[in-house]
Design the sequence.
């Protein structure tokens, strides 16, 4: 039966509003006055304490033409619109707070208990109880982690096209660089070929628009000039690196350094980076309006606090050096004298990056061959790496996770000490952070350029500190986990190709060391093999048994015992402060529970990457007493502090959501501030009290001895006639010479060679160990007219005699 068509009911047309004249006419005619339409309702008032976005009263100005100007205009002209107050969504997260309290209580008991021996079953039971409480909190919804970011829905597949001609030129230049580096020397010629190979190979693969089809296809595309500018910008940057190398290894360093700086500025002018364009666009605004968000202020404060921890008392914490630093400074003096080795064979062999960094620092800041020159480079590199700690945390769990990860890492006594001791140790975590960030983001966004950047940082890092050779294993682990999980669907082949590109780019930067390794494999691998195999001594037991024993001791480093290597840690205590250690344990349980529930590859990668990045410490099979080694396990710190941040952010977020913004905001602020302040206070005490006192007690006071000799030299004693009477297992006399302002001079003289000093005219001075009675008697025999005094050192059992021989005696 056909349906009956129903005509739509016409909507009433809006009636015009009557005028005053119409109203008066109706009254005079004794008619009903026309109805006056209701006025539109006024908008409801904004919640108390909130601001309403202002409606512009003037015509809107035309939009800026360039992307940079549009970004600046949007950031400075649009007032913020704040979200309304949120209402409570549930009961108080009691299980989450109980789990955190239990973790803090147990860690407080564990802190400093390592002196009593390995953890007992009672302590392990307590940790298991904490894990149960965390699981209960997760089940009740009282503690949860921030959701991992997903791949963008519009990410196009990578065509994997390359520029064939630049690639051919780059491969040829790299091959020539490999051939010409056969003498273990950098030269201007092979460095130029090396950098040329890097420039052309990177340009061959680089995408001008992230994640999109190359804008330079076909060749007549108007975007081609832009990519040429990118090429020349990159070429100029590497040319600046060549000029900087020449400045370090030749005379006229001021000219070459100035030329390097001009080349960098020219590179910026050719293709300025985005931040520079935004700054210029902001400066060109007719009126400036700065908007400082609460979160932006928190980021600034976090980095300011980190800068305080990293640079406070840098000249005196620590004050004295030991023999490893003497070896390093002697290599730096070789660089400053014009030598340019690829692999530094002194002290069992070391990679080159830090030596050239120290030489550049000494020239740039005029700090000379000194402990301070070493510290400035390592501490600054460690501080700058916090930017990538923030970005990695943001990639994994959001901007709050990034902020907390950077803050806890910046305050961490573990990483602070690795930087301050001024050896190569900080180079490991400093390059792990950018590699992991670009790797994880590249796998998520499927952007080829991220893999190129990861390869760049990995290649540079391989020239830094030997333990970073474990990082490629972590990269392979990440890719395997990604490919084996559903998140890689439709991207598995492309991911494998991208990782191959990462390996290629990293090898370009590794070419000099690869050339040395081909010719000198035993020397290149000696440091590693002397710890993994029986090169220096036989293994003390079954390799498999030692490995698992080291694995257990290594994983206990964070909460129990960080080992007995005094220059890099406060011995026999956890590597983390109480707050960080408790959050790390809870965060590991949270990641494990979420992986069981959701099977996200990032959760499993974060958990497994920690022991993988600790392999340089765990694989010390020949010397198991050297495990755990905080310096060799430093790369794991990047992941550790991201897990710490994930755990804290998860609990604070649940508190905020369940209590509502009105009650939750002050509770979250107070709890977060309290935890951060306790962590900061303990890390401060660990570095500037416990560590420095331990260091001063175990390192010889070479600085104090050097200052005594320097004072005699200033008083008229010839510099070459100020000595230290050698004694077994006492000071490294090379360090006394450096501290006395005489780098390169070994101030030692032995009792057997004292007679040779009789032929020297002028005053003489000798320093003798406080218990070297035989040495003092020998000096009195050779110089009976000498004047002896006893110098009381600032640290007990570090005293010494001063034996002064006046001129003419």
Sequence:
């Amino acid at each position: 039966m056909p349906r009956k068509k129903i005509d739509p009911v016409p909507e009433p047309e809006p009636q015009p509003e009557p005028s005053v004249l119409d109203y008066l006419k109706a009254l005079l005619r004794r008619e009903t006055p026309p109805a006056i339409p209701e006025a539109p309702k006024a908008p409801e008032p904004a919640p108390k304490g909130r601001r309403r976005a202002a409606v512009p009263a003037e015509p809107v100005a035309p939009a800026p033409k360039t992307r940079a100007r549009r970004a600046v205009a949007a950031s400075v002209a649009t007032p913020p619109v704040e979200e309304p107050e949120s209402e409570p969504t549930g009961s108080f997260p009691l299980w989450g707070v109980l789990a955190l309290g239990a973790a803090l209580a147990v860690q407080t008991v564990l802190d400093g208990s390592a002196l009593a021996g390995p953890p007992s079953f009672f302590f392990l039971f307590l940790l298991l109880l904490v894990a149960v409480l965390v699981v209960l909190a997760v089940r009740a919804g009282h503690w949860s982690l921030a959701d991992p970011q997903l791949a963008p829905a519009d990410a196009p597949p990578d065509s994997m096209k390359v520029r064939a001609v630049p690639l051919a030129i780059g491969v040829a230049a790299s091959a020539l660089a490999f051939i010409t580096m056969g003498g273990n020397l950098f030269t201007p010629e092979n460095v130029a070929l090396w950098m040329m190979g890097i420039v052309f190979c990177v340009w061959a693969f680089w995408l001008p628009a992230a994640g999109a089809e190359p804008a330079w296809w076909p060749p007549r595309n108007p975007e081609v000039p832009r990519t040429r500018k990118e090429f020349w910008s990159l070429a100029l940057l590497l040319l600046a690196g060549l000029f900087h190398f020449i400045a370090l290894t030749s005379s006229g360093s001021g000219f070459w350094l100035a030329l390097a700086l001009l080349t960098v500025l020219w590179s910026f002018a050719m293709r300025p980076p985005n931040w520079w364009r935004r700054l210029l666009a902001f400066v060109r605004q007719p009126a400036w309006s700065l908007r400082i968000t609460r979160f932006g202020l928190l980021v600034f404060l976090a980095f300011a606090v980190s800068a305080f921890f990293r640079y406070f008392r840098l000249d005196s914490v620590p004050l004295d050096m030991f023999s490893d630093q003497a070896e390093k400074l002697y290599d730096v003096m070789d660089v400053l004298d014009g030598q340019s080795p690829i692999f530094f064979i002194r002290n069992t062999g070391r990679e080159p990056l830090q030596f050239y960094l120290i030489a550049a620092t000494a020239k740039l800041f005029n700090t000379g061959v000194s402990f301070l020159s070493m510290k400035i480079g390592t501490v600054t590199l460690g501080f700058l790496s916090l930017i990538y700690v923030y970005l990695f945390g943001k990639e994994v769990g959001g901007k709050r996770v990034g902020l907390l990860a950077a803050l806890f890492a910046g305050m961490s006594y573990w990483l602070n000490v690795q930087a301050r001791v001024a050896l190569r140790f900080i180079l490991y975590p400093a390059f792990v952070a950018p590699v992991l960030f670009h790797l994880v983001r590249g796998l998520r966004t499927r952007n080829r350029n991220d893999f190129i950047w990861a390869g760049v940082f990995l290649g540079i890092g391989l020239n830094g500190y030997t333990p970073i050779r474990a990082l490629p294993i972590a990269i392979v682990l990440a890719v395997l986990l990604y490919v084996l999980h559903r998140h890689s669907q439709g991207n598995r082949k492309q991911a494998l190709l991208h990782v191959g590109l990462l390996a290629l780019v990293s090898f370009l930067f590794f070419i000099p060391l690869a050339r040395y390794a081909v010719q000198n494999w035993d020397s290149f691998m000696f440091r590693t093999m002397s710890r993994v195999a029986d090169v220096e001594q036989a293994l003390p037991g079954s390799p498999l048994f030692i490995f698992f024993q080291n694995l257990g001791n290594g994983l206990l480093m964070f909460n129990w015992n960080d080992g007995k290597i005094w220059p890099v840690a406060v011995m026999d205590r956890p590597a983390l402060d109480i707050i960080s250690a408790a959050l790390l344990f809870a965060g590991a349980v949270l990641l494990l529970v979420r992986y069981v529930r959701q099977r996200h590859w990032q959760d499993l990668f974060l958990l497994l990457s920690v022991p993988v990045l600790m392999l340089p410490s765990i694989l010390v099979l020949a010397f198991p007493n050297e495990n755990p080694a905080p310096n060799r396990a430093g790369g794991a710190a990047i992941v550790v502090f991201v897990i710490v941040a994930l755990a804290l952010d998860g609990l604070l977020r649940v508190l905020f959501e369940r209590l509502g913004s009105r009650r939750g905001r002050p509770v979250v602020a107070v709890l977060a501030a309290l935890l951060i302040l306790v962590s900061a206070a303990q890390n401060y005490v660990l570095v500037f009290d416990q560590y420095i006192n331990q260091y001063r007690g175990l390192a010889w006071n070479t600085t104090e001895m050097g200052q005594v000799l320097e004072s005699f030299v200033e008083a008229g004693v010839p510099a070459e006639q100020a000595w230290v009477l050698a004694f077994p297992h006492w000071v490294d006399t090379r360090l006394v010479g450096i501290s006395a302002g005489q780098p390169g001079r070994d101030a030692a003289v032995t009792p057997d060679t004292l007679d040779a000093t009789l032929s020297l005219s002028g005053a003489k001075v000798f320093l003798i160990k406080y218990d070297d009675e035989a040495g003092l008697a020998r000096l009195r025999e050779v110089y009976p007219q000498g004047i002896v005094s006893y110098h009381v050192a600032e640290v007990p059992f570090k005293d010494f005699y001063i034996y002064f021989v006046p001129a003419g005696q």
User: Anything to note?
Assistant: Residues 702-805 form one domain. Residues 470 and 567 are 23 Å apart (CA to CA). The two ends are 135 Å apart (CA to CA). The first strand starts at residue 722 and ends at 725.
